[in-house]
Design a protein that fits this description.
alpha+beta; two-stranded antiparallel sheet; 10 strands; 51% helix; globular; Helix-turn-helix transcriptional regulator; WH-like_DNA-bd_sf; ArsR-like_HTH
């Protein structure tokens, strides 16, 4: 259990409005330079650099150098999960924020699929007996192992990793769980490789392809308008 002072430090880092805005942008997926973040949150590059230094020191972001540029991204899936969870605790606005339909239908939640497509996928896996739910996780069944193998996902290798295997990740727009953890990431990676889904040009939006419509219908009985 974290010491209360450590929790307070993390809460302070996330709770400052400018840093919260920057973390929200990084949660959308693509790494960004300090200049890009400055333009998106409406602050000077100097101010943003100061905030990024604090986020780096606090372990919430990491930086990668490519040539003359330095790209910032979230430090890892634990940070992404924490930010998603906090978004569920945020007070409801008098005028609710409208989620654009494409983003609500399908997007990435750090490295796994979210939105209606993500929760429908989780429901179908459970309905077909491939996953069995507990309060916070899913367990893979023998039939689920066969399904994943047919899809091209090595479940045995995933289970040997350090990351939680299959988390029930509460979706902030659907208020139902989609598949997170190592399995969620592997499923998303495989579905992108199969071209069942494709990334949109900006942000973390995802679109369903013609191949995906056929594949989801054939393998899981899923279809969408």
């Amino acid at each position: 259990m974290a010491h209360p002072l450590d929790l307070a430090q993390i809460a302070h880092l996330i709770g400052e409005p400018a840093r919260a805005g920057m973390l929200s942008r990084l949660l959308e997926g693509p790494a960004r330079t300090a200049g890009e973040l400055a333009r998106e949150v409406g602050l000077s590059p100097q101010t943003v650099s100061g905030h990024l230094a604090q986020l780096l020191e606090g372990g919430l972001v990491r930086v990668e150098a490519q040539g003359r540029h330095r790209y910032y991204r979230l430090a890892g899936p634990d940070v992404a999960r924490a930010l998603e969870a906090l978004s569920l605790l945020a007070p409801t606005r008098a005028a609710p924020v409208k989620v654009p339909s494409p983003l609500r239908f399908a997007r990435t939640c750090y490295d796994h699929l979210a939105g209606q497509l993500g929760v429908d996928l989780a429901d179908a896996l459970e309905r077909r007996g491939y996953l069995e739910a507990s309060e916070e996780t899913w367990a893979l069944t023998p039939s689920g192992e066969h399904f994943l193998a047919r899809l091209g996902v090595d479940s045995e290798a995933l289970s040997r990793g350090r990351r939680a295997f299959a988390r029930r990740c509460l979706d902030w727009s659907e208020r139902r769980a989609h598949v997170g953890g190592a399995l969620g990431a592997a499923l998303a990676e495989r579905l992108f490789a199969l071209r069942w889904v494709a990334r949109r040009t900006e942000g973390r939006g995802v679109r369903l392809t013609v191949e995906g419509r056929r594949g989801f219908d054939r393998e899981l009985g899923l279809s969408w308008p």
